[in-house]
Specification:
By secondary structure, this protein is α+β, with helices and mostly antiparallel strands. It is 30% helix and 24% strand. The protein has 5 helices and 8 strands. Strand 5 and strand 6 form a beta hairpin. Helix 1 crosses helix 3.
């Protein structure tokens, strides 16, 4: 699905589903079930998404998937619930926090493998603010959404923090290493 096809009503619907899924999760300890036939064809198409929760400007949960495997509206419902209650970095969201939570959704394009001859070559190809990256080295894997560029402005800083997230040292450049990039449409 071309990301440009999502209009403001689609985005509003997805944000509403995310909020309802978190509300439903507080009451029922599971994600909001969605009836696909109640949504537009665009929202029924398979797409990969991440749902990010912030509280007072600080990360409070972020869960998603890198590959499309289910309808976008269900993906958002599942990830909103998971970001609120299953992100291992945070305790489950409380009912008291709910009114203060800000929800943002990122819908991913399919990842494309990058070709590079060295770390320097890779860095020269990155597009700050646009590229999300997936780093894979052996059993180690990590991703940063394009939104992370807001905190990590330079390609070097972005890649070094991604290496750390994957469990590598910033000086590591394992062989083999693979990097894929994707873009997102993000809204809140």
């Amino acid at each position: 699905m071309p990301l440009t096809e999502l209009n403001n009503d689609d985005k509003k619907t997805l944000l509403d589903i995310a909020k309802k899924s978190i509300d439903f999760g507080i009451q029922n300890q599971l994600a909001l079930p969605v009836k696909l036939n109640e949504f537009s064809e665009k929202l029924q198409q398979n797409a990969a998404s991440f749902v990010t929760l912030t509280l007072n400007g600080n990360l409070r949960g972020c869960i998603g998937t890198l590959e499309a495997h289910q309808a976008l509206v269900k993906d958002v419902s599942d990830h909103a619930y998971a970001a609120a209650f299953e992100d291992p970095r945070f305790p489950s969201l409380s009912k008291q926090e709910l009114p203060k939570i800000e929800i943002s959704i990122s819908i991913l394009t399919p990842a494309e493998a990058m070709n590079f001859s060295s770390e320097k070559d890779l860095l020269s190809q990155l597009e700050p603010g646009t590229d999300g990256l997936i780093l894979e080295a052996g059993f180690k894997k990590a991703t940063f959404l394009p939104a992370v560029w807001e905190q990590l402005k330079s390609p070097e800083e972005f890649l070094n923090h991604l290496k750390i997230k994957a469990g590598l040292n910033v000086t590591d450049w394992p062989d083999p290493i693979s990097i894929s990039r994707y873009q997102t449409i993000s809204f809140k």
